[in-house]
Write a structure and sequence with these properties.
Largest sheet: none
Oligomer: single chain
Distance between the termini: 52 Å
Length: 276
């Protein structure tokens, strides 16, 4: 095992142990608060109990934040030679040298059917996720659904939050289940597609010479681009999301949104669920 992998392993184990320890301390503190008297959930009681567990919590938060520069400046090594290559990478490599003119119509039809089936499944996944997200945003941005906050009605705040969570869950549960199933279905279809492509290359000699130009389709080029630059794309997306989050946080602080959130949190904890 290399030094980089050893550092990541130790870091991951330490973070996991701290997460478990922080969660256990939090549960013990909550039980201790509950048993501390007839009126246990006061700000003073909660503050004194949670103060005793703040050190492991702060260390855990610091390690979570520290994992970002760790993965940027000390990334894991790339896949070693001889490592297992995924079915999709194998298919992309074969399709780049595949001679469609020599393949029989029957096998070519099977290949196209499997490829377009996979593509259609991914399109459906995108549409489902997009539809669920839009429906959730429409509900969340409708002020009428959260009148309890506007009317300062503490007794209805909890029910409004639960109802909103159930609505969002109803909109997103089908897309999430579909995406989980898609992982297994896509792997199964890719395995069948790989068998057909290999059989076509072997029996129909449908392989371009080594000196011939690549015969990639637009779909192959798009898939190849994302496969080759996956790490860079993920890094760019993470940085963009981090910058967006930072901008939104600063905007909220400047326009007083942080104080509004604090007021709602106090109202929820102290008046709705009984902490105070």
């Amino acid at each position: 095992m290399s030094k980089v992998r050893l550092v990541h392993l130790i870091y991951g184990i330490t973070l996991s142990l701290l997460l478990v320890a922080s969660g256990f301390c939090f549960m013990v503190a909550c039980v201790d608060i509950y048993r501390s008297g007839s009126n246990p959930f006061t700000p003073e009681s909660i503050g004194s109990h949670f103060k005793s567990i703040c050190v492991p919590v702060y260390i855990t938060i610091a390690l979570v934040i520290g994992s970002i520069p760790l993965n940027i400046f000390l990334p894991l090594e790339s896949v070693k030679k001889g490592a297992k290559i995924s079915k999709k990478q194998t298919l992309l490599s074969l399709y780049s040298r595949f001679d469609y003119t020599k393949a029989s119509e029957e096998r070519l039809g099977k290949i196209n059917k499997l490829r377009y089936t996979r593509l259609a499944l991914y399109i459906v996944a995108v549409l489902l996720l997009l539809g669920g997200t839009i429906a959730s945003l429409v509900y969340a941005l409708n002020i009428e659904n959260f009148k309890a906050f506007a009317d300062d009605n503490s007794s209805l705040i909890n029910s409004s939050i639960i109802e909103g969570s159930l609505v969002v869950l109803r909109y997103m549960i089908i897309p999430l289940i579909y995406c989980i199933a898609l992982v297994f279905v896509d792997s199964f279809i890719a395995s069948r597609e790989l068998l057909v492509v290999k059989a076509t290359i072997k029996e129909d000699k449908a392989m371009l010479p080594k000196d011939a130009p690549s015969n990639e389709t637009i779909i192959d080029k798009i898939q190849g681009f994302f496969t080759r630059h996956k790490k860079i794309i993920l890094l760019v997306l993470r940085i963009a999301l981090g910058i967006l989050a930072l901008v939104l946080i600063i905007t909220g602080i400047v326009n007083g949104g942080m104080y509004t959130v604090l007021q709602k949190a106090n109202k929820l904890c102290q008046e709705c669920i009984g902490l105070g």
